[in-house]
Amino acid sequence: MADQEDDIVLAELPDEELIPQMHDDLYDGLKDEVEEGVYILLDRGWAPYKVLTEALVAGMKVVGDDFRDGILFVPEVLLAANAMKGGMNILKPLLAETGAPRMGRMVIGTVKGDIHDIGQNLVTMMMEGAGFEVMNIGINNPVEKYIEALQSFEADILGMSALLTTTMPYMKVVIDTMKESGIRDNYIVLVGGAPLNEEFGRAIGADAYCRDAAVAVETAKSLIARRHNQATAG
Ligand code: B1M
Q: Confidence class of residue 2 from pLDDT cuts 50, 70 and 90?
């Protein structure tokens, strides 16, 4: 693979060849090449969101499938994740550059026992791009950390992420603790992550399950608007 890479000049590839090449580079954990590809697409006038979804997220899907099937192992996936983050870091300021009005404040973090953070970083970027202020508290968060962050940041929304079937039940622990402390209804609770679904979101008492970052933005916008309307009516 590496020998072939030496011969390929990314800037000379047309879009329809550059995209699969970037997926290969992501798969191989070639951060510099992935970053170069992102710059090339932006130079060609691609919207940052299109680069994100078609060049990066779609490439990561292949990595995920091969990880599941035992073709890739943790060290390779870490390299791919690092390459993905390189590309995301270039896009982050561009996605946030919309000059959108302040929409609300969100605390987001991955639950206790879980160290996957690419998805929640993406949600953070997209929410910031849509005008939300976001406090990203990272990975492996116990309930106390969520509650402390919600209160200190004066958040409107709690976002929780879980990528493992073994860690997703912890979301219910957080929501139940919020209920016990009498603060549940002060916040909109959104949950996401590959193993979740709508039914799970409902069952644990979240306000909504968000399939992806774009859905998270739309859901947050509509639930915040509904809250404002209720507050005005009441
Ligand atoms: Co992990 N891993 N991993 N992993 N890993 C998965 C999740 C897995 C599905 C792979 C597989 O088998 N196919 C599998 C889980 C199986 C299961 O539980 N059913 C798995 C496993 C088993 C593991 C380990 C146990 C492996 C091991 O050690 N033997 C281990 C667990 C570590 C731990 O957390 N305690 C582990 C470790 C790792 C790495 C460290 C190597 C690395 C993480 C690096 C990092 O995040 N910094 C890693 C990765 C990269 C993956 C895959 C390949 C990719 C995840 C990802 O970043 N996807 C993943 C396979 C997969 O998901 N297909 C896998 C891209 C990202 C953009 O998508 O995170 O789904 P996603 O986020 C989306 C939506 O879900 C949604 O929006 C995002 C953007 O659209 N969303 C939200 C997510 N969070 C949200 C929160 C919201 C709203 C929407 O709040 C409002």
A: very low
Fold of 102-234: Rossmann fold (3.40.50)
Protein residue with least CA distance to atom 29, ligand 1: 74
Question: Residues 154-177: what's their mean pLDDT?
Answer: 98
Query: Can you give the residue ranges of every domain in the chain?
Result: 12-100, 102-234
Look up the CATH architecture of domain 12-100: Orthogonal Bundle (1.10)
Determine the average pLDDT of the residues in 62-83: 85
Instruction: Encode pLDDT of 28-48 as tens digits.
Output: 999 999 999 999 999 999 999
| Mutation pick for ligand 1 pocket among 61, 67, 197, 204 (CB with most ligand atoms within 8 Å) | 67
pLDDT top residue among 232 and 22: 22
Q: How far is the CA of 154 from the centre of ligand 1 (A)?
A: 29
Q: Which atom of ligand 1 is nearest to the CA of 196?
A: 75
% of the chain exceeding 70 in pLDDT: 94
Q: Do 12-100 and 102-234 have matching folds?
A: no
Are 104 and 157 in contact, with CB atoms under 8 Å apart?
yes
Length of the chain: 234
